[in-house]
């Protein structure tokens, strides 16, 4: 494809890569202001984003790929746009950067475009036109730029404020276009996500799909929609993946989950997921334990006392609980090693009580720990459903606060679901309960923690033991 300068005519033989399929072509050509792409791994999301970015930067109409249409008054051209591409990992940015540099290299080689490898910027000197690729995962890392085309890839791993506080305002001056690209989060990716709500991208997709104004457009692609990928290779990969990972990462399907299906659906991320601060030595500590040779786990919570440390959220109340440490080392450790790690976590603080394990079948394990000096006792409430009920009460009353770096606990809180009956009504049984070891620690802890209840119109506080 040939592009020209506006003053002295210079021809650049820039070849824009063609989309690999009709489906990728549909996404590349889309010109609506808000575009949400949900796609499986290796579909070609990044390659499509690079094509889209180059077209905008060069002022080529994406709807006709420069051939002329009604949208561009049959010129094939539109006003060039400043482009910002953002992704939460350097690896992802590197993929986009490689494709974009490769496409624009004819202009870079003759000096018409200036390339900065450090900042990942390609620009036309003495203008504000440029493509920039940057690593960003929240509002702070997104600041300091503006764009006519904003592309946010792996959006499910970004904090919501990246768009709400920074991305959206940066498009106001020129009524710019925003493109959100994501793969439904699997259990692996949720552990490193910066999102408050791990499903925020999926919720945006669902809401955008219902739009009737023409302002939003959604696309759903699977890995199988990339014709350049070997179907046999995809089949082999699927054998090594869990059914859930395959459904999310290859088929790009996620659960249309209702809050009532989640055991801890009332957990308030905006309020109760908090930044880490130093737990004072005078805060008493409780520990919950789930036994097992392959997947032992422990959860440590501290009870809030006043005055609060200066870095703690000011809204913490006396008697609230802060989950400050999770322990899930995997197999290969003995009880003495576990005990030593527990003591390291405890530090100089006082362990008020430790609880865990099945009441009838795991007493010998508790006795072993007591002999080693870590006094774990059986839960006072024996029925699992009653344990869960108390844990739900603590969560619903916003008594439990969780440090944002306890990724596995937060993942289990967000994913733990009830088994659904044939009418998709939740039962009282937890789906795949054996997988949720830290959630088990939480329900054990709930049997010894104080539950605050609120009754009546005057909302008098009542403490329930």
From TrEMBL:
Gene3D superfamilies: 3.30.420.280, P-loop containing nucleotide triphosphate hydrolases. It comes from viral metagenome. This is Putative terminase. InterPro entries: P-loop_NTPase.
